Amino acid sequence: MSGSLRTWLLDEAPHSRGQARAGAFYRQWLAFRQNGLAMLGLSIVLGLVLVAIFAPLLAPYGPSAQDLDFRLQPPSQRHWLGTDELGRDILSRIIYGARITLGIVLLVVATVAPVGLAVGTLAGYFGGWVDAVLMRITDVFLAFPRLILALAFVAALKPGIENAVLAIALTTWPPYARLARAETLVVRKADYIAAVQAQGASGLRIVLRHVAPMCVSSTIVRMTLDMAGIILTAAGLGFLGLGAQPPSPEWGAMISSGRRFLLDQWWVAAMPGIAIFVVSLGFNLLGDGLRDVLDPKRE
Amino acid sequence: MTTATEPAKKRWTLAGSASAGLARDVAATAAMVAATLLGLLLVTFFIGRVVPIDPVLAAVGDRAPAEVYERVRLELGLDLPLWQQFWIYLKKAAAGDFGRSVLTANSVIDDIVRVFPATIELATLGTLIGVVLGIPMGVAAAVYRDRWPDQFVRVFGLVGYSVPVFWLGLMGLLVFYAKLGLVAGPGRLSTGFEDIVDPVTGIVLFDAAMAGEWEVFQDGLRHLALPACLLGYFSLAYISRMTRSFMLEQLRQEYVIAARVKGLSEFRVVWRHALGNAMVPLVTVIALSYANLLEGSVLTETVFAWPGLGQYITQSLLAADMNAVLGGTVVVGTVFVGLNLVSDILYRIVDPRARR
What we know:
Chain A starts with a helix and ends in a 5-residue tail after the last helix. Chain A is an all-alpha fold. The longest helix of chain A has 37 residues. Chain A folds into two domains: 33 residues, no CATH class; 260 residues, MetI-like (MetI-like fold, Orthogonal Bundle). Chain A is built from 13 helices and no strands. By secondary structure, chain B is mostly helical. Chain B has two domains: 90 residues; 248 residues, MetI-like fold. Chain B is 76% helix and 0% strand. Chain B is globular. Chains A and B meet through helix 6, helix 7, helix 11 and helix 13 of A and helix 2, helix 7, helix 8, helix 12 and helix 13 of B.
């Protein structure tokens, strides 16, 4: 059974578009599987997703359940990663915090990637003044110091997790637009685009159906590599008190409140930081691996 | 002799209208810089307008009588149409006037001039560490590709890309300051040393050395060590990674084979010929990483209570002191644009092809 599936996937002469697509995907997966570090990254990211989904089942305590007799306890059998100043279980808070982190990353990426893709492909395909205007705007945003701009946005909109997402999104999209534009400039001259044009397809249809799909794989790579940066920025905003606000188990905010006890109860600040580190390392490893597989220009 | 055959070919085709091309380049760059700065001011202007803080109340306090309120409102030009307000904002910004900070009661630009040297000191030292260690590491990674030096540099860099800077700073303080006592704690100088040296340049090491106060110099260095190493690490992660990829590109070129065939030592081939050409794009990378450190110091400065621009901006933010925040943003943005421009110019100087 699995043998025949494998031959069907690796068929040199696929009989349908679906088979060709599945086959290409399977070959990329085979290449990806060879890369040990990338597989480690994939498992970390999958682990994050599972932890976020099943947080209530996995966490031994609630995220804000207080155990006032056990405040600032070091890691023990009862509390694996210790407790914070209100006797809350740090492990449980980190597990629930995975939901916030994943939520931020997905929200930012879901807003940023389509916007960047749209701006880049439109500018690249239509050229002329459309290109000039869109790219000038992109350059202006690209020239900004990202973190400081995000800080200013959050300050203007008042601190909070939604505004942190918005601020990060506003400062993250320009590289996507540049990337998509560069790809579009290459694709635009291809014969198959000329063929679609000859068949009378409208400009918008060509961009959406025939140009944008070609830019998707590089956008995915860039997205995965960016996710680590998004996590770090969100945590930084939380740490400065401008992102998620304290009772929420956001990892950056947890470090910020654990900072007061750094010298005597180090685990309060140390543990959430380890979580941030592991998760962003996971995204970086995954992104590196995906780039090796998906980027055909590499060597 | 070191330049490859391929660049030489390119130079011929480009040589056509040399001076006209240069003039056009300069004009295009100037227009680009102007557009970016205008965009920067436009964005900060609108951020300043959407803030739910009444600028008049912020200036006069909430117990001021109605006529004072109205007078200040007119003085601030808030009754004018938006485009006129923006024009006034532009003119003031060009003169370096970003209003008064509510928090410190000084004019924002004076505050910035006072705190900026601390940030520059930190970022410069960090970039220096990144360049001095990062380039050799990147070269080693490229030369020993896929062997242990490469893997080491790769993992070392990936950790740098993945670790939150503020957390690493806290852990550094915990280990090297609290537990081992190797470095000094937060701040720029210990309490006893604070007012010994006049802040001539505002850069502690410089001022102390000029005044011959070597104890102050040492104390300053002990305070600088940890945050500078921290920023240096992030700069190193970036620089070594880029050095590796530029070097790999150069080592594939035919002139490298030619140099080896001529019998040059491997050392000379790698460090003179290949690195010499890899330095061209690296200049841009180093300038970019310097700009990033100036900005990235926001979190580092908060952790180390470093009285620089980053800390100034965050403290103003938390106090809802918008004049200071936006002034700081404009200054950092301008420095950013300036550094990009400098790297562009340096690129032209270093690259013989661009020096037409």
